[in-house]
Every structure is written in C-alpha cells, then in structure tokens.
Amino acid sequence: MPRRARHAPGGLVYHALNRAVARLPLFQKDEDYRAFERVLSEALREKPTRLLAYCLMPNHWHMVLWPQKDGELTDFLRWLTQTHSMLWWFSESDAHVCLVVFVRKTRIFHSGMNC
Questions:
Q1: The CA-based dihedral angle spanning residues 74, 75, 79, 85, taken in that order and rounded to the nearest 10 degrees
Q2: Strand partners, 13
Q3: Which of 12, 13, 26, 64 counts the highest number of beta carbons within 10 A?
Q4: Are 15 and 88 in contact (CB under 8 A)?
C-alpha cells in the first residue's frame, strides 16, 4: 500500500533531507558534488522555489526551503531527486544496486511575513 502524500502548504519553511538506501554514498568525488549543484541549479529554473540554505555530505544532503505556493515544494523535490537519481544511475552503469532515495520534509516554522 503506497504512503499517503504529505501536504506541504506554501508560506512555510521546510527542512528536507535526502539519502540513499543503506546510507550508500551519493557523492564520492568532487565532480559528484559539482554535478549535483548543476542539477540543483537546473531544478531551481525548472521548478522555482526559495532555497534558503543547503549542505551536501558524502551520503546525504539537507536543504532549507520556503515555497510560496501549495505543491511547490513537492514539485521541486520530486524533479531534483528524480533527475539526480537518473544521472547517478547512468554514471554508475556498472552498479548492481539501483539508487533509491527518500525525502523527508519537516515543517520548521510558519512565517508571518509576506515576502
């Protein structure tokens, strides 16, 4: 049975994290980090949202995001993680394990500001 979709209304700030199954490394060399940052930049063009901060580590990443509209966060994270997973899979063509990722969204706080 599939998991129920999480509701992520706009106007709130979220902490999102992503890691691979079994905590496998997402980034093994400097080029892996640069490739992810290129995908991140493209994701922001394709599915615009406000990115407040991010941190990349060898086996996972964190982002602080502030979407303006309902559904914006989900669209952005789906595009980013699917694109990165496909690029990772094709770059690791001799790999025998498919990279499966999960994204966890945690509401941080509600902003009373209209920005």
A1: 20
A2: 109
A3: 26
A4: no
**CATH number of this structure's domain 12-108, picked from the four choices 3.30.70.1290, 3.40.50.300, 2.30.29.30, 3.40.830.10:** 3.30.70.1290
Tokens of 114: 């209209």
| Average pLDDT over every residue of 90-96 | 50
Q: Tell me the mean pLDDT in the region 47-74.
A: 95
Q: Quickly count: other Cβ atoms within 10 Å of residue 111's Cβ.
A: 11
Residue 3 to residue 81: CA distance in whole angstroms: 18
Among the listed residues 105, 94, 47, the one whose alpha carbon sits nearest the alpha carbon of residue 72:
47
Dump strand ranges (E) for 44-97. Answer: 50-57, 60-66
- Taking residues 22-30, report their average pLDDT: 86
Q: What is the pLDDT of residue 22?
A: 82
The domain segmentation of the chain, as residue ranges, is 12-108
- The rounded distance, in Å, linking the Cα atoms of 101 and 60 is 10
Q: What predicted TM-score, i.e. pTM, was given to this entire model?
A: 0.74
Question: Rounded to whole angstroms, how far apart are CA atoms 58 and 106?
Answer: 21
